[in-house]
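#onboarding

Welcome to the new folks! Below is a worked example of what a typical request in this channel looks like: someone posts a single protein sequence, and someone else replies with the predicted structure as tokens. Don't worry about understanding the tokens yet, we'll cover that in week two.

Example request:
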Amino acid sequence: MDYVPVIITLIVLAFLPWLLLFVYYSKLKGEHLKLFVIAGAGWLVALILRFPILYGTSFILDLLTYYILAAILAGVFEESFRYILAKKLTLDERTNGEILSFGIGWGIFEVWVLHTSSLTTLLILILMNISIPGMPVIPPPEQLFISGMAGVVERWIAVSFHVIATLVITKALLNKNYLWIAIILHSVLDLIAVLSSFIELNIWLIELNLLITVMLIYILIHIGFKLNVIALFTKLEIPFKEV
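Example response:
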């Protein structure tokens, strides 16, 4: 097995499930594409807006405190900006399918920036035989694929969270308390990820923790807060307010 097919496979797999779902139900219609792209741009803006804080505090905080701050900022900035965009786009007056397109777009752009770019950089370093001082030793292709699949699974989980977070934020347009719920849920999920990494938990146990957490969030939103999560995926043409 060679590095090139391994890395390309990992890149493609990270996008595949959610992107295929988006293409299948949206038929790439204009309004769905518009919401998909705007949401992706929203994720990028939310990242850029919090970057000065992350950069500035990286020099003064210990690593653990910095990780905790980064997790909380992700919840605050992403959900606040998601709310601003959702209000501008009147997501609460749109169909479930359009809300789903927004959530998938937000998550897919995160995959592209955080996952695809890093693997593309790794591929370039390998192809050009470039070594960077202090860079960890690249494992053999077979081991890289196994560890890389954990990253792929994490991206799938992340997109699934952005979908449910978009549903919560849409509800926040009718009841602002849901904005705080989205911020808290996002921060908690990110805290679980960064703290699990900090204590050097096995990478697959980290993904299991994240998967269980997101599943519990789906159940909480559907049963506890009585938002129809099932309808989001099955009644795509129904307006949000009619569910």
